[in-house]
From TrEMBL:
Annotated Phage head morphogenesis domain residues: 164-268
SUPFAM superfamilies: ADP-ribosylation
Gene3D superfamilies with a match to the protein in the record: Toxin ADP-ribosyltransferase, Chain A, domain 1
Residue ranges constituting the ADP ribosyltransferase domain according to the UniProt record: 333-476
Protein name: Phage head morphogenesis domain-containing protein
InterPro entries the record matches: ADP-ribosyltransferase, Phage_head_morphogenesis_dom
Provenance organism: Acinetobacter modestus
Organism superkingdom: Bacteria
NCBIfam families from the UniProt entry: phageSPP1_gp7 (TIGR01641)
PROSITE patterns in UniProt: TR_MART
Length: 487
């Protein structure tokens, strides 16, 4: 039995007899004061690193290189700069190691205090009872220790990542004969990105700390469910906007975690306590059953992917995508749901075959896969609609069927019913194919960030169906070159 379960009759009586307005449960927010404090501390570490490079490294570059591009490795600057960077790394690392544990502990405990205070106030406003004495520190000790350890590691990573990138930029600049002002510009850009990373760590970690501590505290009290609440602004990712107002169980998290756990998530859990305060209110199980009839977009999209993929494949791809922070930052920016991310990744791997065969009429309604592939194509199409347009020239090497090739005469308009891939890279991909399509794109979508072959194929995908006008057609060295304009 939990604390609130044992006290349920007393709580319901207190709630019933409490004078004045009955307060509704409120979300447990991140302490903005603590978040700002953490950001400033991390920013000062970033600036300490940048000052060290400015004081110790940049003068060496100016003295030895100036604006000359005739510098040689044999001049000794390479080893001198490498040694100086090594000394700077050690000096800054030693100083940060001394404060990392203290800073992480301070931030985690401040958020714990703020979270506990909000829970106590919420319960007191609803019942008139003070639960402060029931908030045992030992209930949260493991989570607190884990959060401190994670943040110590992140704090220490700021100087390490910054100085490693500076070292790579400086040594590469020396080896390739860049001028000192060019190298300094690269160093400045690295500093800006490190400042941005400090902000990301502060926001992301406070959300994670708050979410995890709120979960454990509520579960220990006997609050088993919560209502998902977004920050209700334009920055909320699409998948989380769809969860707003829905009830979730603490012991059954969504695919990407509870509120605050996904990277840069600012959503919060509102404790579901109606049944604890009012014996006539729905239990959380009854409330969830009532919302079960409404299938969320994500649930529907997961169902739509089945057939094109099996459950194990979906889970494996989803886990891989969720572990890639760079992908998740862009997925949030584009409001991509997790099933849509899975569709993009699978299509750019080996999933294009069956899907385009169906769209081109090679798999018909009599095939058991047909309707499953139709559903999956809608998920992929939805994903592409969310991505920004790639405007410019892209190239597709392919082998067009004879009947379709005959329609590619100058002035003709052709329609592709399937999804169409191309590359925006410098070289042709699959250059062994006999037909080279040069396409003036207006709405192709750059999927390189999530592609199975990231930075190899530089893939863009045209959503379907798509019409093109044939501008030119020539035969060069046994390759038919066709120039297309997207309509």
């Amino acid at each position: 039995m939990t604390i609130l379960s044992n006290l349920k009759p007393l709580i319901q009586q207190a709630h019933k007899t409490k004078l004045g307005r009955k307060a509704k449960p409120q979300p447990i927010f991140v302490s903005k004061k603590t978040e700002v404090e953490y950001y400033k501390a991390l920013l000062s570490i970033s600036h300490l690193c940048q000052k060290g490079v400015k004081d110790d490294i940049e003068p060496m570059l100016a003295f030895n290189m100036g604006d000359s591009i005739e510098i040689h490795i044999g001049d000794g600057i390479f080893s001198s700069v490498k040694n100086a960077l090594g000394n700077l790394k050690q000096k800054i690392s030693n100083s940060i190691d001394l404060i990392a544990s203290q800073l992480a502990t301070q931030i985690v405990l401040k958020q714990k205090k703020a979270s506990d205070k909000q829970i106590v106030e919420m319960l007191q406003k609803s019942t008139g009872l003070d639960f402060t004495g029931l908030m045992r520190d030992e209930d949260l000790q493991d989570a607190v220790d884990s959060a401190i350890a994670a943040n110590v590691s992140l704090i220490q990573s700021i100087p390490k990542q910054y100085l490693d990138k500076v070292e790579a930029a400086v040594l590469d600049g020396i080896q390739t004969g860049k001028r000192s002002d060019e190298i300094k510009k690269s160093i400045l850009e690295i500093g800006h990105s490190t400042d941005s990373r400090a902000k990301l760590i502060a926001v992301d970690q406070l959300g994670k700390i708050n979410g995890r501590l709120a979960q454990i505290r509520q579960q220990k009290l006997g609050i088993t469910h919560y209502t998902w609440s977004t920050s209700h602004d334009e920055r909320v990712r699409h998948s989380h906007r769809l969860r707003d107002g829905l009830i979730f169980a603490w012991n059954d998290p969504p695919s990407d975690g509870h509120p605050g756990i996904p990277i840069r998530c600012r959503c919060v859990p509102i404790p579901y306590t109606a049944h604890l305060f009012d014996k006539d209110a729905k239990t959380p199980e009854q409330a969830m059953a009532a919302q079960k009839g409404i299938k969320t977009l994500i649930e529907q999209q997961n169902d739509d992917l089945l057939g094109w993929l099996n459950k194990n494949q979906i889970s494996k791809i989803a886990n891989s995508l969720m572990s890639d922070k760079n992908i998740q930052v862009l997925a949030e920016e584009y409001n991509l749901t997790l099933p849509e991310q899975v569709a993009l990744r699978h299509y750019t791997g080996n999933g294009y075959g069956n899907l385009n065969s169906m769209l081109n009429g090679l798999i018909n309604e009599g095939d058991p896969l047909y309707f499953e592939l139709v559903a999956a194509s809608k998920v992929l199409s939805s994903a592409l609609d969310r991505l920004p347009n790639h405007i410019g020239v892209v190239v597709r090497r392919t082998r067009l069927p004879t009947e379709l090739l005959a329609k590619h005469e100058i002035g003709d308009t052709v329609e592709y019913n399937a999804f169409t891939s191309a590359t925006y890279g410098d070289g042709d991909v699959f250059d062994f194919y006999p037909h080279r399509l040069v396409i003036h794109s207006k709405t192709a979508k750059n999927v390189n960030f999530i592609s199975e072959y990231k930075d190899e194929e530089y893939e863009v995908i045209f959503n379907r169906p798509k019409k093109f006008r044939v501008l030119d057609r020539t035969l060069i060295d046994d390759v038919i070159h066709i120039e297309l304009e997207e309509l």
